[in-house]
Amino acid sequence: MKTILYTRAAARALRKHGNMAARITAKIEDYARDPAALANVVTEMAGKDYRRLRVGDFRVLLRETATEITVLDIGPRGGIYD
Hints:
This protein has 82 residues and is an alpha+beta fold. Helices cover 30% and strands 34% of the residues. The chain has helices spanning 8-16, 18-33; strands spanning 3-6, 42-44, 51-55, 58-64, 68-76. The longest helix is centred in the first third of the chain and has 16 residues, at 18-33. It starts with a strand and ends in a 6-residue tail after the last strand.
């Protein structure tokens, strides 16, 4: 399992969207445990150095290395890419 790190913006977003926080963190942990199982909901962003994980109407922007996943930001699908 890869180590999961949260940026300050991601931690703030989890607190802000408290009703979805458990579902989002569970999906991130599932991805850290077995990336191949969630390959259909993780997309490499064109022209960017991060990936996008879909969790319902929310998007999780993350950067991945061989040993860790850094969660950059979390938000609703309409405004996360601004």
